[in-house]
Amino acid sequence: MTQPPRLAERLLDGLSGSTAFSEGVIGDLAEEHARRVARDGDGSAWRWYHREALRSAPHIVGDAMRSFRRADLRVIATGVLAAWGVVVVVALADRATGSTVSHGLRFVLRLAGVESDIFFAAAIHSLLVVLLGGAGAARFSSRMPILSSTAFGLTAACSYIPLVDTGEPVAFVLAYAAGSLIAAAVGGVFLVSLSRPRSRAYPPTVGIGTLG
Amino acid sequence: MATPTLGPLEITVLLAVARLGDEAHGLAVRADVSERTKHDYSVGAIYTTLQRLEDKALVSSRLTEPLPVRGGRSRREFKITAAGRRAVVQAQRTAASVWDGVAPLRSPKPA
After folding, report:
1. Which residues in chain B touch residue A60, judged by CB atoms under 8 angstroms apart?
2. Preferred mutation among A15, A25, A55 to probe B, highest tally of B CBs within 10 A
3. What is the ipTM of this complex?
């Protein structure tokens, strides 16, 4: 059987709240993709799938929001806390080793032809740590992985607000905060792209109404 | 019980579910609606509408056994309910009443 594009399918899966709604939408996309591969060929089916995934994504997110329960808040909070745990452990390890990672990054950047001061290397380092945290948040809240990593990214972004008081330019703080948000979401997306689609583990037959 | 108010897409999707009978699943409904309205609705848009209709108890749904062609996912099948049939009849009456007395209109000639 022809598999639909893996990354797009898993992203849709990661955005969803793992409901019958997303099961239906992602399943329909897979079925129609297989039909189009047989009829129009791989390239055309691939383009159709991505276009349709992009159009259906807002509906899947909307459904995840509608089906949001109090228990999901706990799941997301667990993911965010786990992500901060990752950040703190990495930061402590880096401090204990005299900012080895930042110095190492500076060295790698120099090898790549990018001259940077230690401050720039530390900024890149912290974005990488946030990316790692985003992946951690997604790992610890399997029902809404991308939402969890984005929520963590939001808290990471907010943590930079106090920098404004230290005299850093507002544009720099905003760029740094936006970078953190994006890095955390990318971390979540990366983890989702590696994991097994969750909706295939959906209970085989779930009656959500009566077909009488 | 009062018949819920339906938007144009909701009526179109509800009619497609009624027309398709046992074959009313997401892809078939989307194909039927897109063909009749000459508009390419996204899979997500059709499901959102079907979900709204289910929330209003105008259709019911169930998941089938997982199917290999869907990557091991279930297919969601829809069926119109008694309340859905009443809503269709009501919409038909309303449309007939609105159109009553209007002479057949011709499309204006292009300028």
Report:
1. 44
2. A25
3. 0.84
